[in-house]
Fold this protein.
Amino acid sequence: MADTPEDTTPAHPKPGWRDGLKQTFAEGMETIDRSEPVASTTRQQIAGALILGVCVVFLAALLGVPHLDTSLQIAVIAFFMGIPILTLDFMLMSFKFGRGPTHDADLLTEGLQVGAWIIGDGIGFIAVLAGVAAIVWHLYTPAFWIGVATFGLASVAVIVVAVVYAAMTMKSRGESKSRSGDATPGPAS
């Protein structure tokens, strides 16, 4: 009865969540150590900085307003929502992460940058757009509706141009393939 496994403990204990957290933290620090600041300014960084500047300029302009009506209150809230989101986006997009020690670390850094791009350039831009729209609504309501109509028409125009361009490109590629197919000799008989 000496071979019963009742009193035996495993040789290697199962790693707990603390061990995984320690390993993840170590991998993250190693990946951060390999990161480099982006030396060149990309269009995305410039656009992000400009949108962030719009928030700050509008908030500075609203400091002198003694009473904020509903549309200006919406603008203030939207700009204060946009500032931290755009700042985080700008900070994360200002670094190029090197290869991490593991594939999981690489996925995490890619996920951080994709998340910053989607949240920062998506939600941050929408917040700023809502703030600007609220200020335009405050200044002159018909101008707001003209802007909404222009945005809608411009969106439709972009889609139409994209579809026409894609159709023309596919048609010309099909014609060039058929021309090159006619010029190739058939199998020898």
